[in-house]
Amino acid sequence: MPDAIFEDPRLAALYDWLDPDRSDLDVYAAMVAEFEGRDVLDVGCGTGTFGLMLAERGIRVTGVDPALASLDVARAKPGSENVTWIHGDATKLPPLACDLAFMTGNVAQVFLTDEAWHTTLRGIHAALVPGGRLIFETRDPAREAWRDWHREATHQRIEIPDVGAVEDWGELTDVDLPFVTFDSFVRFERGGDVIASTSTLRFRTRDEVAASLAATSFVVDEVRDAPDRPGREFVFVTRRA
To answer: Exposed e or buried b for every residue in 68-94, given b needs 16+ CB within 10 A?
Structure first.
């Protein structure tokens, strides 16, 4: 079940407003060009920002996400007809022959059990052509990113057309490694409604990620740094064996 921040229609409609700077995606768009990608699978595509960015460049894109409300936002955007949107997850994809697959943002950390993570990797493996690449980011647990997940560091207030002023913030609720749980809050000043969403992420070490990839027939070609968050994340560049 997707978290409310992605599945609740009122929150999904605000997602792009609350996180407008997606310059982190420029790195991955550049990698599509670097590896001469023509057919891309966007796993956990959310509101479609990355998929639409690639489609504008003539890339064939399939976006998959289990949160229907987020997909509804994606489908309503200009150019959405140029992307194939799938409501579901990577374990139940139709036959595909992609040369690149991506998991951007926190997607790789939402799979809490080994079974969920491995079946997702196998689903992506099946969607790639031989030699096709899976590229994804995941936070380095040694950097303890969750220490900044509190109201003082995350609170913002913005004005949204037709909605009015909205506040949002996060609060860390539990650290029981490898799991970290936090609450996200959105408050609508017009009416005073507050909607909460609880999320849990799994922090895997670099060696744990590498072992899981080897177990699902992926070869790790390299592990890069995240240019927008240097030293805080691993960017795995892998290849279907």
So the answer is: ebbbebbeeeeebeebbbbeebbeebe
Residues of the chain with pLDDT under 50: none
Q: Which two tokens stand for residue 175?
A: 């650290």
Burial of 193 (0-12, 13-18, 19+ CB in 10 A): exposed
Q: What pLDDT, on the 0 to 100 scale, is given for residue 77?
A: 97
Domain ranges of the chain: 4-141+204-240, 143-201
Q: Can you give the pLDDT at residue 128?
A: 98
* Contact residues for 33 (Cβ-Cβ < 8 A; gap 6+): none
Q: How many CB atoms lie within 10 A of CB 4?
A: 19
pTM over 0.90: yes
Q: What is the dihedral of CA 124, 218, 100, 130, to 10 degrees?
A: -90
Give yes or no for a contact between 237 and 224, defined as CB atoms under 8 angstroms apart.
yes
What is the model's pLDDT at position 201?
98
Q: What pLDDT, on a 0 to 100 scale, did the predictor assign at position 160?
A: 96
Q: Scanning the structure block, which residue is given the tokens 């550049």? A: 30
Gap between the Cα atoms of 3 and 211, Å rounded: 28
What is the CA 29 to chain-centroid distance, rounded?
A: 14
**What homologous superfamily is domain 4-141+204-240 in, according to CATH?**
Vaccinia Virus protein VP39 (3.40.50.150)
